[in-house]
Specification:
It is built from eleven helices and 16 strands. By secondary structure, it is α+β, with helices and mostly antiparallel strands.
Length: 346
């Protein structure tokens, strides 16, 4: 890290979270220390073309129409390059891009292929966390190919009402619905099935929404927990990115013992799912019930101005520019460590 590092911000993509990714990239580009980094904005359009974006411009708002078409191998081949994937959701956060970067033998920020894939698929992540004894809300899974009326009936019988239905492989609350009646559950399953083959049905938990930012590779630390008071019926996509109605509370409004337990559980989930670099771990807190319940682990959290991940680290004493530097340092450390474990015939 003694020389100026080429920091490639990889953003956009073909998922429903394309726009959120563009906003994240714009703000990482603005916060990165130009004395330490040569920042390159590499966008993927909604139709899959790779284009260099103009940092002074809208960073993706016109990505489909403008920007120099490039081959990613040419960008990744430059020495002293670290890629910062800021692509949320499928075909970005699910291990696909991470596999490409592994094949290109380039250092990159965040978790590897396995952790990214497990955390993206909420049904798999729940199984792994259950194996490690982590507390979670009650849930069922369903297949979009099976009769949804029968799946809805079974879920209501087992979990009661209301329920939350979501695609297993999606983020930013895309495709998530709250279902208060039997017919609502069927409609919610139909809506989630537009985004994924595997559907997750969860009991509705009445409690505080708590988020913890986690940072590190072998040595891991957790931020002060933050809380969210939704401005809508639940913390949906519009509430997160469009309406700006949610209230973010740092620190969270939970007792100190619960805050310390949230940090401990966040690190346990991070390690159980083999995360590296960064993740945001989300919980529900039932103050007069089961306490903390793990909701999900996000390996590429948002970096927009209202995103909790950078805000939580700022509240914990780590500035946005220094957070970027730390993530790059972790990416380089992990890349060098993994190289030592690779076997070749030479």
């Amino acid at each position: 890290m003694g020389t100026r590092t080429r920091l490639v911000l990889l953003f956009g993509g073909r998922s429903a979270e394309h726009d959120v990714s563009c906003v994240s990239a714009r703000h990482v580009a603005a916060a990165a220390d130009r004395d330490r980094f040569e920042v390159v904005a590499l966008g993927i359009t909604r139709t899959g073309q790779w284009r260099l974006a103009e940092l002074a411009g809208p960073l993706g708002d016109r990505l489909d129409a403008e920007g120099l078409a490039v081959a990613p191998a040419e960008i990744f081949a430059e020495p002293d390059t670290v890629v910062f994937p800021l692509m949320h959701g499928p075909m970005g956060e699910d291990g696909t891009v991470q596999g490409l970067l592994e094949t290109a033998d380039v250092a990159y920020v965040g978790s590897g292929v396995l952790a990214s894939a497990m955390c993206m698929d909420k049904s798999v992540a729940k199984l792994v966390c259950a194996h490690h004894g982590l507390p979670q809300c009650r849930y069922r899974t369903a297949s979009a190919h099976d009769p949804l009326e029968a799946a809805a009936e079974q879920a209501v019988a087992e979990l009661g009402l209301p329920l939350f239905v979501k695609p297993a492989n999606m983020g930013s609350s895309v495709g998530v619905s709250r279902a208060a009646t039997d017919s609502d559950v069927v409609q919610a399953l139909e809506s989630a099935a537009r985004y994924d083959q595997t559907l997750v049905i969860e009991e509705a938990v009445t409690g505080e929404e708590v988020e913890v930012a986690v940072l590190g590779n072998r040595e891991v630390e957790a931020s002060v927990p933050g809380g969210i008071v939704p401005g809508a019926e639940f913390y949906d996509y519009a509430d997160k990115y469009l309406a700006d109605g949610a209230e973010l509370l740092i620190p969270a409004r939970i007792p100190q013992p619960a805050a310390e337990e949230a940090q401990r559980l966040a690190i346990s989930a991070y390690r159980a799912l083999r995360c590296e670099g960064m993740a945001r771990v989300d919980f529900f807190y039932e103050s007069h019930g089961r306490g903390l319940l793990l909701s999900e682990v996000n390996t590429i959290p948002g970096f927009t101005p209202i995103s909790m991940y950078p805000k939580l680290w700022e509240a914990s004493g780590l500035s946005y520019p220094r957070l970027i530097e730390t993530l790059v340092e972790l990416a380089v450390e992990r890349h060098e460590r993994r190289r030592r474990h690779r076997r070749t015939d030479r």
